[in-house]
Design goal:
135 residues; Lipocalin; 13% helix
């Protein structure tokens, strides 16, 4: 009986002292925001997401800069996030829901949706981001 108790005590002590305390902090995953200015896949159009409205701004000159919200086309579209999906109100009563996936430190966003012709997707870049730094 003593051997059994001694063996059990030794096993318990071995277990307790073999556990290593985790001293490294847990890295937090950054939450990306769609708020801001995003260049479309075609490169000649920019969407600015601000205050639950999506403004569409075209380049003022080919290969040039984009204007401000004052230069946007009339009637911005309402938008909101549902989890990891971007919902856009298009027209008076239609909605489109896109899966929004971010990478490149929140500077690249892939939007994917089910369209009438199949899966539609596009990659958008934050304005001013050097796209060569992230492939």
């Amino acid at each position: 009986m003593k051997k059994f108790l001694l063996f059990t005590l030794f096993g318990a002590l071995l277990f307790v002292f073999s556990c290593k305390k985790d001293t490294q902090p847990i890295a937090s995953i950054p939450t990306c925001s769609i708020e801001g200015r995003w260049i479309s896949p075609t490169g000649n159009m920019l969407y600015e997401f601000k205050d639950s409205l999506r403004y569409t701004i075209y380049q003022s000159t080919p290969g040039g800069q984009f204007g401000t919200i004052a230069d946007a086309i009339p009637n911005p579209e309402k938008w909101w996030m549902e989890g990891d999906s971007l919902v856009l109100k298009v027209g008076s009563s239609s909605y489109v829901k896109f899966l929004a996936e971010f990478d490149c430190n929140c500077n690249r966003m892939k939007q994917t949706a089910n369209c009438l012709t199949g899966i539609c997707s596009g990659i958008y870049w934050k304005e001013g981001f050097d796209t060569t730094t992230c492939q």
